[in-house]
Amino acid sequence: MNNKRYIELLVLLLISVSLNGCLNDLFSQKDLTYQDDPQLEFRPLNATEAEDAGAVEVLVQLIGPQQDSDIPISFSVNSSETDAVEGTHYDLATSSPVTLAANSSAATITINLNGTTLNDGEFRTLVLTLNESNEIKPAENLKTHTLIIEGVDGN
Q1: Domain chopping of the chain, boundaries
Q2: pLDDT tens track of the chain, all 155 residues?
Q3: Domain of life of the organism in this record (predicted)?
């Protein structure tokens, strides 16, 4: 009887020791904070909107820790990839540079779609690019926003 008790205690001791290592791994948390230099990105990268959608917002988002001071963010229309005409298909309600406010993670660019110039099923493209001249550099793969403006019935 004593031997059986010793074996039970030994098995319990071995189980608790082996679980101790697993539990440490199970409950340990990795540091998931962004460790690189801050960068900028567009959110979303692509969108399709009806030409009569009115005001469309595109976010410029900070990747990394919030900054202690306002940051001007320069952007431009990529004319070589844009076939939409400013004043006809769209107007930029937000001029460049847009300001990323201190202790904030995003700034908004507003584009007004002008409504009734495209036929149903006709499309125009507006491409915005975050410029390299910013204090915080844009992420290479996330620095372009493509807006497809779609013609709608009734024009």
Answers
A1: 1-30, 39-150
A2: 577 777 877 777 777 766 666 555 666 677 777 788 899 999 999 999 999 999 999 999 999 999 999 999 999 999 999 999 999 999 999 999 999 999 999 999 999 998 778 888 899 999 999 998 778 999 999 999 999 999 987 55
A3: Bacteria
Q: What is the DSSP letter of 102?
A: T
For the whole model, what pTM was predicted?
0.77
75-77 and 46-50 as β-strands: parallel, antiparallel, unpaired?
unpaired
Q: What are phi and psi of 26, to 5 degrees?
A: -65, -40
**Residue 42 amino acid letter:** F
- Token representation of residue 103: 């202790």
Take residue 47 and report the two structure tokens written for it: 């969108």
Residue 24 three-state SS: helix
CATH 2.40.170.10 fits 39-150, yes or no: no
